Amino acid sequence: MPIYRRHLPHYLMIAPFMILFAAFFLYPIFSGFFYSFHDWNGVQPPQFVGLANYEKVIGSRDFSRAMWNLLTYISITVPLGILVALGLALLVDSFTGRWASFFRNAYFMPVVLPAFLAATIWRWIYAPNFGLLNMILGWIGIPSVNFLNDTGTMIYALIAVDVWVSAGFNMVILLAGLKNIPSELYEAARLDGANKWQQIVHITVPMLGPVMFFVITYSVISAMQVFDKPWLLTGSSFSEYGGRRGALLFPVMDMMGRAFGEVRFGEASAYGFLLTVAIVTLTVLMFGVRAWRERR
Fold first, then answer.
1. Best CA proximity match to 231, nearest among 222, 223, 240
2. Structural contact between residues 115 and 228, judged by C-beta atoms closer than 8 angstroms
3. Nearest 5°: phi and psi at 259?
4. What single-letter DSSP state applies at residue 45?
5. 47 phi and psi, to 5 degrees?
6. Residue 77 pLDDT more than 90?
7. DSSP-H helix ranges across 113-179
8. How far, in Å, CA of 231 to CA of 281, rounded?
9. Measured between alpha carbons, how far is 150 from 170 in angstroms, rounded to an integer?
10. Taking a C-beta distance cutoff of 8 angstroms, is the pair 75, 162 a contact?
């Protein structure tokens, strides 16, 4: 019996997945790559323009502003979010029983909140006149701040929301890593006179290396694709997005605006592939640095 007939039942079992994978993953990728070299408005036949779409995207002011915002956002939110998540993981790990479950669930709650609900909560907190944060600032004599309309505070307001939302997920991952660290290491360190801070620096952090690498990589990739939180916080639409003076304009937001606001699907496709290349390149570099450090 030919080998393909022998394995025909196996091929039939994975056929539904392969069909859906090809239809909803492979086809969009290849069609997007095709349209990135064409001028297409979604109605008329696409016109081949070569690299013109890539040149328009890279040469636009919105692209420069979006990439600068993204760089600022990543450089702050990734390390800050991981530090907060590690602190929460250490705090939860210090409890046992019901208290550990209570704090773990409480800190994880923002992760499962719908994005629009989280944005609504924070829009109320940031409200200039009656918002919770401005009320607190008023009690200590600081005048009202329009956090979501002041270009000097908008990016930091977004970072606070992102840390609040994402810290719980990273906390759970780091907490799982903490549970796998042998308690004998801490007992030996205590016998040698190490205090709590020295145990964290010389035992906890090094032993969390693989888990920490996953958290950092996942956080960076997620941050590079940020879209929903700035979009909702600024009340954006496809005709007007990014907030005042583009202070919260990010690549995915700019790409969506070009596609569905300006009906320039060719430019949007080129934008998407540029962002994909950036994400893949950064991820490869991170894995390369990790492999190089392990070989040392």
1. 240
2. yes
3. -75, -55
4. P
5. -115, 125
6. yes
7. 115-126, 132-139, 154-179
8. 26
9. 30
10. no
Interval 252-263: pLDDT, tens: 999 999 999 889
CB 77 within 8 A of CB 170: no
Spell 157-170 as b/e; 16+ CB within 10 A means b. Answer: bbbbbbbbbbbbbb
Q: What angle do helix axes 154-179 and 61-93 make, rounded to 10 degrees?
A: 40
User: What six digits make up the tokens of 180?
Assistant: 């796998």
Structure token digits, residue 59: 């040469």
Closest C-alpha among 198, 209, 202 to residue 174? 209
Amino acid at 268: A
The model's confidence at residue 4, banded by pLDDT at 50, 70 and 90, is: low
290's tokens: 């990790």
Does residue 89 contact residue 171 with C-beta atoms inside 8 Å?
Answer: yes
Map out the domains of the chain with their CATH numbers: 52-295 (1.10.3720.10)
